[in-house]
Design brief:
Layout lengths: L1 H13 L3 H12 L5 H7 L4 H4 L9 H7 L9 H43 L5 H18 L1 H30 L14 H34 L3 H28 L3 E6 L1 H7 L1 H6 L3 H10 L11 H19 L1 H16 L7 H23 L4 H16 L19 E9 L9 E10 L4 E5 L6 H8 L4 E9 L3 E4 L10 H6 L6 H10 L3 H6 L17 H15 L3 E5 L7 H12 L10 E6 L10 E5 L5 E5 L25 H9 L5 H12 L1 H35 L2 H50 L3 H7 L1 H43 L6 H43 L1 H7 L2 H53 L10 H22 L1 H19 L23 E8 L9 E8 L4 E6 L5 H8 L7 E6 L2 E2 L5 H6 L2 E3 L8 E2 H5 L7 H10 L3 H5 L13 H19 L4 E6 L12 E2 L8 H15 L3 E5 L7 H14 L4 E5 L11 E6 L2 E6 L1 H6 L4 H13 L1
Parallel strand pairs: 4-8, 4-9, 6-7, 7-8, 13-21, 13-22, 16-20, 20-21
Antiparallel strand pairs: 1-18, 2-3, 2-5, 9-10, 11-12, 11-14, 14-15, 17-19, 22-23
Helix pairs in contact: 1-6, 2-6, 2-8, 3-30, 5-8, 6-7, 6-8, 6-9, 6-16, 6-33, 7-32, 8-9, 8-32, 9-16, 9-17, 10-14, 10-15, 10-16, 10-40, 11-29, 13-27, 14-27, 15-16, 15-27, 20-22, 23-44, 25-34, 26-27, 26-29, 27-29, 27-34, 29-33, 29-34, 30-32, 30-33, 32-33, 38-41, 41-42
Organism: Coemansia nantahalensis
Protein name: Canalicular multispecific organic anion transporter 1
Length: 1283
């Protein structure tokens, strides 16, 4: 009743939500139901026994509770505090009651132990105390429930904040700093966790005050507890300050840069193989160390840092025995002279240790204020959703009103309006409904920016603009969601089969869906990586057509397809008499002139961002193919047996295989180091316990102050020794993991990845490979060795406890078998459920991450298609599933902790009762069974069952990490390419002439029924210029892959200068050829790293190639340097730098490698040191192609392959690139693969491919003269399109 009155008064005083508070009381106070664990133990599946999620925990409910006023200061913190106050107030009161109960535990234990020193005291009193102690431990278990409740509340409120943040960019365009919306739940968890921790700090301070008051009441004064608190605070504050001083004195000043090595490899795996760059990544794997900082120092500095760190760790680990020594010393000095009250000293010791634990917990939960401040500012900015001035899209389509009206508009990226940020100037445009507008211009002049401006994504600097009606945008690099083709076309809309069939037909996807294994039910992979670029573009077009918008904005949709498909898209979709979008307003940006005749308005954008608008009468498009009736897509087919076999092959191996792989990666050094340290720990612990027991017994017998102080001084020394052993174990494990094993772990993974065949890498999937590396590298290097060390330490602790118990009371060791049976039964009971729960948690987290990434990648289409409710429901469903799994984990944890605590205390109490009976019945030596020995045995038996349980359930804890080891092992065991390392290398001058012969060559991609190349026979003379053309899928690019042996041939052979390339070492073959791919891979690094990744050329050679490739302007252009901070000075600055670095790394997550860049060194942004981010996002397609051309010039090979190298560039860039190639490679054999026929008309001969065979070979004039040939038909289609 008193507790209820206190809670009611607290709720009234704080004004919190009473319903939430009483819900928290019910959750904390009542016993957890065990239906989940019991059901899974009996063989039921997890999905069948998980209870439905209560309304309070659902994401939609939590989102509705999160209300805020953006006009207030710290409105996010206020809103979070309001949501957290209801459940946290009863949690604080519960923790105070538990603190009082902990004081009762010490009194009960002391009363039970006193019976051993008082033979005349009734034994039944001790037995009652032991029974009450078991009951009190059941109450103490509630502290775990309180902590788990707080975890669930943090997750619930963070989910609510995340949903509130993501609603804004899904519903509103033109938001400033939109990139800050897509970092998941990291920033919400930082803010919510900090606010909830404030409640925890209040609770800990109250608990510490209660401990001091209770100890003062029991001991008759508070001076000793004040002294203990001062000693604890001095250590807890001094050690972190000392660590900062150490960092300030020795640390180098670095900034962190994220580097996604796996994304770079998986995205550019074809280029990496063709350029023979595998050694670059193997060298990175040998040299890379994760961001621990220690490897940056010389060995003397590292030794000093390790020694100082050891001293500080020992000081921190000795805080509990130090607090006991200070408290007992102060108590004994204040006590009246005479004999010492052993019972009072025991109580002072227990209370000092309790106070030490509370202050230690308070100190360890210190808030990273910089991380909190950054997170709060980002969330406030996101929730305020400041919008840039943009064109008005609020008006609906209306008859007689222009669909698009721009008057003197200037657009810029951001709201600054600076001259360098303005990309479009003085744009005036009026478009009537149903008109076709073609926006043309060179590369990087702002064509795509104009489309984004019409979507309200660019800031309107001046002028006025209006867009009437619903808008659909198809970007040049169209993002897809992870799902099937049908899922991407529907995009959350209801299925309308006729409309879906019409959209598929209009986008020329009919034939593609027939070739795909499951039709429109075929998965497209993460971000559409499982389909080709042309198919990805047409799926995005079909999505836009299915949305039935009023205005369509298309960013060069024909660049990714060949002439035939482009013709079909023009006829069926864009401008034909029966085109699906004939009656819609269409704005199409392109570098090609093919569609200009059919446009109503032509907008020509120049390099300064000005536009010239020309109105004209459009030409009619004659249909080349009669419009077929669209057929309804087939239902998704079931996976075939081949896919099932692939899934079976990817099943993980046994635990033995995982352990063997772990030993192979870690080496024997880790096992040797751990064995030696554990043996030292065991011997030291056993001796220390014996000395402590003897010292305490002497103190109890002499009853002098000096004897008691000697015991506590010895306890301080033993605590320091144990802390030192633990720190040495930690440093040894870290040293072995970072310095001896990391290069082996990285090298095995990266080596297996870059040396595997291309098909094997594609089969694994980009996302799966990235998840495997970024989880397994850290686990193998640090987490698993630490866990194995912890398990071994627990084994040593168990052996030490058994040996010590045997030394005191051999009969007490009989408790070990009982505890072992209970531990094994307990582990078997929960093991089945733990496996299911672990798998479900991993799958749920992956699903939530994929959902969030899909929404982030497709935010603009979601806004334009008005699909925000659908995708928010998907995110809420993922959050609900994650919360459901976490509640099940919490319930299981509560139950396990409760059972473990009750069993351990019951076993220890039974042993203590048996020892008391043994003493009272005079069956043993009474002199050996004092309270000292009884206390030692009681403590040993209390830890015996938890240690046995931990050892019995070690497999369960290591189970998730075994899956990580299997993921790492699977990549290292990928099949290797047939490299022929022992084959004789060709002479250094090979190939001298560049003559190529395809002799009845055939090639088949893995898993495909039909050959990509079938019986190709072709002879190419040295120095000849060959053009290769054909329809999509004809086998053009397969010729290049065959030449570089990216895919091994099935029959026939290829000869270069008379040598069969199948008998040449693979690395040598690729290094002797040159290639310029369609989308050159730009690496994360400097311009020098991109031009010469293997560092084989001098600076003079690099600049000569830059000049010849006409790349001088790009290389010498000054760009804004990356923001690099000044070197921090002083303790506070060092703390700032470390906290910001930590928060930055946490925000990006573990899916990155981290480069350290020295602070204070100016960023060199010119010349060869110009920094290029991965993918070259700030460079146009033409500029990237110039980088690829420069690489080819550096190689100076006699064979050059151009694989669609100028497909995505404008006519001027195409002409410039080919003029350089004609001049610099005039004596080389050049194979130009292209779908634009004008690119190859200047070749000596043209090879026309069709269905993997050579259909025609001849000079351009001869092929044009053959009017019935395939080349002539392709040429007519191309000329018809251009006309």
């Amino acid at each position: 009743m008193a507790a209820t009155a206190m809670l009611h008064a607290a709720l009234v005083a704080t004004g919190v939500d009473r319903s939430a508070a009483w819900s928290a009381v019910r959750q904390i106070a009542f016993v957890v139901p065990c239906e989940i664990v019991h059901g899974c133990y009996r063989g039921a599946k997890l999905a069948d026994v998980l209870p439905p999620l209560a309304t309070r925990w659902q994401a939609a409910t939590a989102g509705s509770e999160f209300t805020y006023d953006p006009t207030q200061r710290f409105f996010v913190v206020r809103a979070v505090a309001r949501m957290a106050a209801g459940p946290m107030v009863p949690a604080i009161l519960a923790e105070q009651l538990l603190a009082v109960a902990a004081h009762g535990d010490a009194l009960l234990a002391g009363a039970a132990l006193a019976a051993f020193d008082e033979p005349t005291a009734p034994a039944w009193r001790a037995v009652l105390c032991l029974a009450a102690l078991v009951a009190a431990d059941v109450l103490q278990v509630q502290s775990v429930r309180v902590g788990n409740w707080q975890r669930l509340e943090i997750q619930r409120i963070a989910t609510a904040v995340e949903l509130a943040v993501m609603r804004a960019p899904l519903r509103h365009s033109g938001l400033e700093g939109e990139h800050s919306y897509w970092l998941g739940d990291h920033y919400p968890r930082v803010v919510v966790g900090t606010v909830v921790s404030m409640f925890g700090h209040v609770s800990l301070l109250c608990s510490a005050a209660l401990t001091v008051l209770m100890a003062s009441h029991a001991a008759g004064g508070s001076a000793h507890m004040v002294a203990a608190a001062a000693a604890i605070a001095a250590v807890q504050i001094g050690v972190p300050l000392a660590r900062l001083a150490l960092d300030c004195a020795t640390a180098w000043c670095f900034a962190l840069q994220p580097y996604d090595i796996i994304d770079e490899i998986c995205t550019g795996i074809t280029s990496i193989k063709m350029f023979a760059w595998e050694e670059r990544y193997l060298e990175w794997a040998r040299d890379y160390h994760d961001d621990d900082g220690e490897h940056m120092y010389s060995w003397p500095v590292r030794a000093v840092r390790s020694a100082v760190s050891l001293v500080l760790t020992v000081a921190l680990g000795s805080v509990r025995p130090l607090s006991a020594l200070v408290a007992v010393r102060a108590f004994l000095r204040a006590a009246p002279p005479g004999s010492v009250d052993a019972q009072a000293v025991f109580q002072v010791q227990r209370q000092a240790q309790t106070l030490s634990a509370q202050i230690e917990q308070l100190a360890s939960s210190a808030v990273n204020w910089h991380a909190f401040g950054d997170a709060n500012r980002i969330l406030e900015h996101s929730l305020r959703a400041p919008r840039m001035p943009t064109v008005d899209r609020s008006a609906a389509a209306a008859d007689g009103a222009p669909a698009i009206a721009l008057r003197g508009c200037a657009f810029a990226w951001g709201t600054g309006g600076a001259a360098e940020a303005t990309v479009l100037r003085d744009i005036s445009l009026a478009v009537q409904p149903g008109q076709l507008v073609v926006v043309t211009g060179n590369v990087a002049v702002g064509k795509s920016s104009l489309l984004l401006a019409l979507c309200s994504e660019l800031a309107l600097v001046h002028g006025s603009g209006c867009v009437r009606g619903r808008v659909a945008l198809v970007a040049q690099r169209a993002p897809l969601i992870a799902g099937t083709v049908r899922d991407n076309i529907l995009f959350g809309a209801e299925l309308d089969a006729p409309r879906l069939a019409a959209a598929i037909h209009a986008c020329a996807l009919d034939a593609d869906l027939k070739r795909l294994p499951h039709g429109d039910g075929t998965p497209v992979g993460l971000r559409g990586e499982a389909v080709s670029g042309g198919q990805r573009m047409r799926v995005a077009l079909a999505r836009a057509v299915y949305a039935d918008a009023d205005i369509y904005l298309l960013d060069d949709p024909l660049a990714a397809v060949d002439a035939t498909v482009a013709r079909e898209l023009t006829t069926r979709l864009l401008a034909g008499p029966c085109a699906a979008l004939r009656a819609k307003t269409r704005v199409l940006a392109t570098s090609s002139a093919a569609l200009l005749p059919f446009a109503d308005i032509v907008v020509a954008v120049d390099a300064d961002g000005h536009a010239t608008v020309t109105a004209q009468t459009p030409a009619e498009v004659a249909p080349s193919i009669a419009p077929d009736e669209p057929s309804a897509p087939d239902e998704p087919a079931a996976p075939d047996s081949a896919q099932k076999r692939v899934a079976d092959d990817e099943s993980p191996g046994s635990t033995y295989d995982a352990l063997r792989h772990l030993l192979k990666m870690s080496g024997v050094s880790l096992a040797v180091a751990m064995t030696g340290l554990l043996a030292m720990d065991f011997v030291g612990s056993l001796k220390a316990q014996t000395w402590l027991q003897q010292s305490l017994r002497a103190a109890r017998q002499s009853q002098t102050v000096a004897a008691h102080l000697r015991y506590y001084q010895l306890g301080l020394a033993v605590g320091a020794f144990r802390a030192a052993i633990r720190e040495i174990e930690s440093q040894s494990t870290a040293f072995v993991g970072h310095q001896l094993s990391e290069h082996r772990i990285n090298g095995a993974f990266i080596g297996g990845l870059v040396r595997a065949p291309l098909a094997a890498v594609e089969l694994q999937g980009h996302g799966a490979i990235a998840a495997s590396y970024y989880s397994s590298s850290d686990a193998l290097r640090a987490i698993i060795p630490r866990m194995l060390s912890l398990e071994a330490t627990q084994l040593v602790g168990l052996a030490s406890a058994l040996a010590h118990t045997w030394h005191i009371a051999p009969v007490a060791v009989l408790a070990a078998p009982v505890a072992a049976v209970a531990a094994l039964s307990f582990g078997a009971w929960s093991d089945s459920f733990a496996r299911q729960l672990s798998d479900a948690a991993v799958a749920t987290e992956a699903h939530a991450t994929h959902t969030r990434k899909a929404i982030a990648d497709n935010a603009l289409p979601i806004r334009l298609h008005r699909r925000a409710p659908f995708f928010l429901r998907r995110l809420e469903h993922a959050a609900d599933r994650r919360m459901q799994i976490q509640i099940a984990e919490v319930q299981t944890s509560d139950m396990e902790v409760a059972l473990r605590r009750v069993i351990s205390t019951s076993v220890a109490s039974a042993v203590l009762g048996g020892m008391l009976a043994w003493q009272r019945l005079a069956l043993g030596d009474p002199a050996r069974l004092s309270s000292v020995e009884a206390d030692s045995v009681f403590s040993a038996c209390q830890v015996m069952f938890p240690l046995l349980t931990a050892i019995a359930t070690a497999g369960k804890r290591l189970l998730p990490f075994m899956a990580v080891v299997h993921a790492h092992r699977r990549v290292t065991l990928l099949p290797r390419e047939e490299t022929q390392p022992h084959a004789p290398a060709p002479p250094a001058s090979w190939p001298a002439t560049g003559a190529i012969v395809f002799d009845d060559y055939a090639l088949r991609y893995p898993g495909q029924k039909h050959r990509a190349l079938d019986g190709v026979s072709l002879a190419i003379a040295g120095g000849e210029k060959i053009g290769v053309v054909g329809r999509t899928g004809a086998g053009k690019s397969s010729l290049a892959k065959a030449l570089f042996r990216v895919v091994e041939g099935e029959a026939g052979r290829i000869l270069i200068d008379g040598r069969d390339i199948a008998h040449i070492p693979l690395h040598e073959l690729r290094a002797r050829l040159a290639v310029i791919p369609q989308d050159p891979l730009l690496l994360h690094g400097s311009l020098r790293d991109n031009l010469d990744p293997l560092h084989q050329h001098t600076v003079e050679e690099l600049w000569a190639a830059i000049i010849r490739a006409q790349l001088v302007e790009l290389a010498t252009r000054t760009e804004p340097a990356d923001p690099v901070a000044d070197p921090p000075t002083g303790l506070l600055a060092m703390l700032t730098r470390k906290q910001r670095e930590s928060s930055h790394k946490s925000a990006w997550g573990s899916a990155w490698c981290w480069r350290r860049v020295r602070l204070g060194v100016p960023g060199l942004q010119r010349g060869l040191d110009k920094w290029i981010a991965f993918g070259g996002r700030s460079y146009s397609i033409g500029q990237r192609q110039l980088v690829g051309l420069c690489r080819a010039l550096l190689r100076e090979r006699s064979i050059l392959v151009l694989d669609e190298a100028t497909a995505n560039v404008d006519a001027a860039a195409d002409k410039a690139i080919h003029s350089v190639i004609a001049r610099e490679f005039r004596n080389s054999t050049v194979l130009t693969i292209a779908h634009r026929l004008d690119t190859v008309l200047a070749s000596d001969r043209i090879v026309v491919m069709d269905n993997g065979r050579v259909a025609q070979v001849g000079s351009p004039a001869a092929l044009v003269a053959d009017t019935n040939g395939l080349f002539a038909r392709l040429l007519r289609d191309s000329q018809h399109e251009c006309s």
